[in-house]
Amino acid sequence: MRLGGGQGFYGDGHRPVDDLLAAGIDYLICEALAELTLAILQKDRQRDESLGYARDLPLYLQQAMPYLLDGRTRFITNAGGINPVAAGRAVIGAARSMGASGLKVATVVGDDVRPRAAELGLPDDALFASAYLGARPIVEALEAGADVVITGRVADASLFLAPLVHEFGWAWDDYDRLAAGVVVGHLLECSGQVTGGNYSGRWWENPDPMRIAFPIATVESDGSAVISKPPDTGGMVTFDTVREQLLYEVHNPAQYFSPDVVADFTSLTLDDLGDDQVRVSGTRAADPPSPDTYKGLVCTPAGYAGEARLVYPWPDAEAKARAALAFLRKRAEENGVPVEEWHEEYFGVNAFGGSTVPKDFEPPEVIGRLAWRTADKESAGRVAGEVGVLGLSGPPTISGMGRGRGGGPSQLLAVEAFYVDKKLVDDQVRVEVEEV
Amino acid sequence: MKRIQLRDLCGARSGDKGDISDLSLFADDEAAYDALLQEVTADRVKAHFAELVTGEVERYEARNVLALKFVMHGALGGGAPRSLRADNLGKTHGATLLRMWVDVPDDVAANAKRKARPPLP
Known about the structure:
The complex is a heterodimer.
Chain A lengths: L1 E6 L7 H9 L3 E4 L4 H13 L9 H13 L4 E4 L6 H14 L6 E6 L7 H4 L7 E4 L4 H8 L4 E3 L5 H13 L6 H14 L27 E4 L5 E4 L10 H8 L9 E2 L4 E3 L4 E6 L2 E5 L2 E2 L7 E21 L3 H18 L4 E9 L17 E10 L2 H8 L5 H4 L16 E12 H5 L3 E6 L1
Parallel strand pairs in A: 1-2, 2-3, 3-6, 4-6
Antiparallel strand pairs in A: 1-7, 4-18, 5-14, 7-8, 8-12, 9-10, 10-13, 11-12, 14-16, 14-17, 15-16
Helix pairs in contact in A: 3-4, 6-7, 7-8
Chain B lengths: L1 E4 L5 E7 L2 E7 L3 H10 L2 H8 L7 E6 L4 E6 L20 H5 L3 E4 L1 H5 L11
Antiparallel strand pairs in B: 1-6, 2-3, 3-5, 4-5
């Protein structure tokens, strides 16, 4: 069984997807939803109720269509975001306009628990509240013959586990195999991050770095797998690139929680087979192996933010930038702008490293970045109104950063995790299959 | 013993979950892994990040892939969609930890495999 990891976030590249399809994969799986993505999609839906899904979904469909129509490949994605029904409609519309026929499109709904916020003790001003569903509804869709499966907030790795359960007939209490499937999914869910992208080793030795490939997993019925990439593509698959992705954002590696199983990532073995192939085997489930809740994310409004970036050259670049930011803060105070939080960063000095950065050098230039949070949008805009004064009445030698100024106020959103009884969610999950 | 900066000794990758920064360090052999285990404790990491991390730091071991995992709470200014930080996703935290200096056995320092630097055009 060959799975292709076709997307790692909303906005990822499309060309490597063509390479995956041409290399031959049974399933193209596109993972579109980081925690931050749901907040971005929420802003879309606030503007237009028919949005709230990843809008590049039809483009993936178009790439995959020849392979879908001749039955070589099926397509699974959580690009439905917080509006899978609208995403499903968009896919069906796009498939019709491409002249497709006989294509079965399944939509999975039921991850949205916002209507039950009160019952679940969630804030009543929640903009969205979504539970991370597991692989089961996707398996149901595949069993109904779906060629395309569109979901909302399904856990990243479960998108990949589902076709393995479907094809190999794994039982839902065959926890070690489920855990192995979750590992495969976790390795593929960030696209190029397992094939040389973001690699912290000798990244400059990536072959053909302009064409970092997306990954393929060739999975056996016992759950072991070989991670590889399409031929004649860039990037690399090595022990080192695979282990960097294996532990990415997993917290306790001995207890990686997915909705379907708790996997023990410390139980597995990685073997570098050479030629861009790494074998992963021996994965076991943790004890206890099954979580009794689903994790969810709830989003509430959290005020507004604005920011200004001011650039000063040597000499004394940091001192000038600090003086400029102090000026802006003082003016906001004098103008009575109700700022709830300030944040100063000095690029070239310590913006990322904070106090871990040694202070034994004088930088050639410094960018002072001031960010602020206010309760309302108008106040966030008022602070930036004083930036222009710095042009002639601030510290000397102010510069810009080329064209394109910092944007206007943007809305902040608070996203918090919660846990919800599985049965409560399962009872509202539905799989709808429509033939184009 | 010899003093070495982590950038010469191991790889690192970091990411986010809510207001938690999740960071991994990767050793290249067992001896280096044991040295990291000894030197890079949760307490030292917490002290290293100072004002950047306001909550607790937990450490986990994954000897099967010669890696240490650090889960740092209160590390992202409230979480990505709410944070005022430029790095609201904690992507740079791995690099920030590589700035730490540690004391390791002479042979571990001599065998450190991350000393190569990328060429500049």
